[in-house]
């Protein structure tokens, strides 16, 4: 059984072919957190470029698993965390580790989860997410996986096996009564080859995730409707 610690931060990142970015990511995490007790946890979906092998040399904890998508990978890392505060961050350096401190400060105000929200959402599908699911959650950047959270509050959350780019995690957290907040962070340069594909592919994948997320939101209503019909 892993030893849990009373204070400090576990920083979790999911990787898929991020060998080139990984050294800079870990270096910048250490620099941002400085003397704050912390650990880095890299969960690699068996990247063919050797990211997992490099992670085993650079990270405090490296986990290699079969490819199931970013959300499942992040949840795997959260459950391995030993510190009471967990930060999830993208490995491609589109999230600036310097903003981790801002997330931690907002968490201290009483939230269970804090999202680092981008001021400008680049895709129309992301803006549609914000206008629908985001309105219900009170979060403008639903798909941002740059988040801080209290481990004991979130480690029991379970997810389906369909990728929703972090939306399902927030929906299920909100459903069990967790307090979700957000901070605004500056835009950072986007990678030249987006992780989820070009404009058309990315929008289609996000729209699929939106449909799944809306179905998850409607689950209680659907269940009540079925029960009502069974008694009629």
Write structural notes for this entry.
This protein is α/β, with parallel strands linked by helices and 232 residues long. It has a single domain, classed as Spore Coat Polysaccharide Biosynthesis Protein SpsA, Chain A (Alpha-Beta Complex). 42% of the residues lie in helices and 16% in strands. It contains 9 helices and 7 strands, in the order E-H-E-H-E-H-E-H-E-H-E-H-H-E-H-H. Strands 3-2-1-4-6-5-7 form a 7-stranded mixed β-sheet, with helices on both faces. Strand 2, helix 2 and strand 3 form a beta-alpha-beta unit. The longest helix has 19 residues. The chain is globular, with a radius of gyration of 18 Å.
Order of neighbouring strands in the sheet with most strands: 3-2-1-4-6-5-7
- What's the Cα radius of gyration? 18 Å
By DSSP (H or I, 4+ residues per run), the number of helices equals 9
Averaging pLDDT over every residue, what do you get? 90
Assigned CATH architecture: Alpha-Beta Complex
Structural class: alpha/beta
| Number of beta-strand segments | 7
CATH class division: Alpha Beta
Q: What is the name of the CATH topology?
A: Spore Coat Polysaccharide Biosynthesis Protein SpsA, Chain A
Helix content: 40-55%
| Alpha carbon gap, first and last residue | 50 Å
SSE string, helices as H and strands as E: EHEHEHEHEHEHHEHH
Look at the structure and name the CATH superfamily: Spore Coat Polysaccharide Biosynthesis Protein SpsA, Chain A
Q: β content, as a range?
A: 15-25%
Q: Please give the largest β-sheet.
A: 7 strands, mixed
Low-confidence runs: 221-232
- Write down the overall geometry: globular
